Amino acid sequence: MASAHIEIVNPDNLPNEFIWSEIEQVEKEKNRIVVKAEFHKVDDENVKEHFMWAPVNFQRIRRITGYLVGTLDRFNDAKSAEERDRVKHA
Questions:
Q1: 60 burial type by CB count under 10 A (0-12 exposed, 13-18 middle, 19+ buried)
Q2: How far apart are alpha carbons 17 and 75 in whole angstroms?
Q3: Closest CA to 2 of 26, 40, 52
Q4: DSSP 57
Q5: Distance CA 48, CA 41 (A)
Q6: How far is CA 24 from the centre of its chain?
Q7: pLDDT tens digits for 7-65?
Q8: Are 39 and 9 in contact (CB under 8 A)?
């Protein structure tokens, strides 16, 4: 899942193999895409890592008569009327 266009901050010149393996691992664990990664050596054995993520596309979800839906395009006339007649809260 690792993207080729990631901004990498690596002032301690850690090995590229380490950097890319950490990015691939965290993308897989979080199921997200990294856009910026920072790596700072804390001591001989520890590295502080900070990741910034690409925005997640979010589709509005509604609950209508017990169903969770994202779009209303497959509703029959009765379901469409139910949605249209609802009280909308601001």
A1: exposed
A2: 51
A3: 26
A4: P
A5: 6
A6: 14
A7: 999 999 999 999 999 999 999 999 999 999 999 999 999 999 999 999 988 777 777 67
A8: yes
Identify which of 47, 46, 85 has the alpha carbon closest to the alpha carbon of residue 65: 85
CA distances from 47 to 37, 42, 50, 76 (A): 12, 5, 10, 56
What pTM did the predictor assign?
A: 0.63
Write the Ramachandran bin of 31: left for phi over 0, alpha for psi from -120 to 50, otherwise beta: left
The alpha carbon of 13 is separated from its chain's Cα centroid by a whole number of angstroms, namely: 28
**Cα–Cα distance for residue pair 34/55, rounded to 1 Å:** 10
Q: Tell me the residue type at 18.
A: F
Residue 88 pLDDT:
76
What is the DSSP annotation of 1-29?
---S--EEE-TT---HHHHHHHHHHHHHH
| Structure tokens belonging to residue 71 | 């779009």
